[in-house]
Sequence to fold (824 residues):
Amino acid sequence: MRNELLTCALAVTALVLSCGVSSAQTYSLPNDNNGCPANCRQITWQAGSDIWNGGSLPVYPDVACAGLNNNGTTDNTSAINSCISAQSSTFNASTQSCTNPKAVDIPAGVYYVAGKVNMKSCVVLRGVKRVTTPWMPTADLSETTLKFGTSAQIDFEGTSGTGTDKTVDAATVLTKGSNTLTMAAGHGFATNDWLVIGEKADPNLVFDINGCTWCGFGSSDQGYYMTQIFQATNVTGNTVTMSKPLYYTFQSALTPVVRKITVGTIRAGLENMRLDGSAYDHSAFIHFSGSVEDWVKGVETYMTGSASKAAHVYLEQWNYGIEIRDSHFHHSRTVSSDCGYGIYVFDANSDIKVENNIFRLGRHHIAQEGGGSGNAFLYNYSDNGHTDDTTYLGNATSAHGPHPFMNLFEGNTASHLMADHVFPTSSHTVFFRNWLWGDETGPSTTTDPVNGVPSWPPSGNGFNAIDVGYGDLYYSFVGNLLGMPASYWGGSYGSNHANWANATIRGSAYFGSSLSNPYVYSYETTTSGITVSADATSLNHGNYDFKTNGVAYWEGGSNHTLPSSMYYSSKPAFFGSTAWPAFGPDVSPLTTTIPAQSCYNTGACGTTSTASTPSFNPVAGSYPAAQNVSLTCSVAHACYNTTGSPASDGASACAGGSTLYSSPIAVNSTQTIYAVCGGTGYTDSSVASATYTMVPSVTLNPTSINFGSQGVNTTSSATSVTLQNSGAATLSISSISLTGTNSTDFAIVNSTCGATLTAGNSCTFGVTFTPLATGARSGSVSIVDSASGSPHTVGLSGTGVVVSCGGGSWCDTGQYIDSGNFTN
Fold:
């Protein structure tokens, strides 16, 4: 797809219009699902927590870890493992959530860890990490540091493993974009199983020139290089529905198989701490195997060990949806072969998200040495890599083994990022809006013994902006910055930096470029046994280079309007006020310091999260009875008081004259509670408040009185009514009066009720009935007061009757005869 050189070296802001290109729609890579391999160059990338938690990592409520010793010499492995095991909970596959997730807090200090820390599902191991931090080896007792012994490791593995291969039905068409598989009978898969699909090497795409003896679907099934992990969202008979569509077309002739993964940990995390490997040699700092939807956030690791696979983060195999972010991985005890890795994606791993990290002073800062697919490497800063061959500019590798495909590198600043040919190659990788230097900052260890690069600058080769080995096919480079302007180094390249004014624009310099002659585009010449050219299958579109000071190739066609991102629909929140997109031919100024590089330069990283605002139960309001108020923080703990300035101490206690919440707060009178959430590794939440107003309440007994029959103009005996203040505040009584149709037939007598009635007390009054006429008579007592529902009433009723006695002196006594009954 190589076009002639375009010489449109005009102001970047006018580049698109000056070249005579306009388009109402942004450019997209060729993506015909039926057009593999040449025209199916991208997928819809969604990785890490963007898949399973809406784009943010979960925030678990914290619990303190007891029994720790921060003297730096006593082994804390057992105590930490006990704390983690005590909080382990199950993952509900039906609801796709943890039943009772917790974060185990490790306070600030230095804790020696001699052995393996075993992570458990639904548990976070969380320390204290300052927003502005000194980098190790500088000590900082205000942060949590785990000092690693020889066998130390943070292990996200559990009891992971895989089952046996199950064959896909030979008649099934496995086209890119399809999300259903038809299995041969007897597969044994069920809904919610985690599965991996793979196929044997496509002879036109996967090339094993060096004869790998371990590559593929594990040591017993070599040859299944291209893999994709997914969850079975439904299994009906032999039909399996995939959680993600196929990223590439799998061919029945290449015997695709599916294998079940036994998950070791799910929804577990490591947050906000420093891992110091400088005291003892050790293996990988952080290890994942059979892990699903786990994460690392806000972690600094210093000095990997010299053992094989000694990486800062080792994603060994069968991992899905892992997120590694906001961290700093630096220094290696050795940079010889198979050591000194940053993020080491070794075997089948899918939908891994690596974002906003710093990588420095390692052999390969990023290495995909396996069949990873759907992975996204976003906005990382990689600089000052080096190897045991000090003449070579160290690199991160988009591909170092069999057979990564459909992976995205976006927005990264990288001194040297290449695709090598050491093991069975790679394909269909996209580089979008990165700044690929083909150089590094330095200085040498002579100038800076701690953070310098040995034998800097390298005297040999590796000074390539784009660096693709033979057999690495269908790579797409779109909207990147290639090389370095002299202004970055103070106005002159000098003798320590690659001179991009003298660069070769395009050629083969896998091992051949130099400081004086770097290469902008280096595609290695095809070797024997590989029938397809890396250069011929590449697509280079809209990359701005510092050789031509413009765009040399628009190989994707006439549409020169680039999208802001191939991953995000809008600016990611962690960019803050930093310009986004950071790089591209259409960005002015051309270069932006991304947050990860700014974090390294200043130590101000902003990785500490703000705790969520507390909630109150019951909510604020008016209540006729005392309340027991519960406070809830989704993370950490709550601190409260009634003065308006509660605060956490940043760990597990409270400050600002506030009280650590441990049990419901008794509210017996009107008051306002102020509360914050805070804790280890978190900035205090905003202050929340809830006012509880205690109010009176009226209870009447009885609530109605029926006097029955009563002689006209005669008075009944009094019936007593009790008025109780059943509320939590003093009741004000304005009046007690008679209302209704026949209110004058009734009278209130013997009242003990005054103008007020305190909470919990009662008073009484009597009511009499003196009917003034015959027939049904009615009225009510009306009590006007300060309680809800006023006026409160007591219904009154009775019947007036005529006195009949037939004469005689006894008739004057008030005795009467009604319907033949003698009544007094």
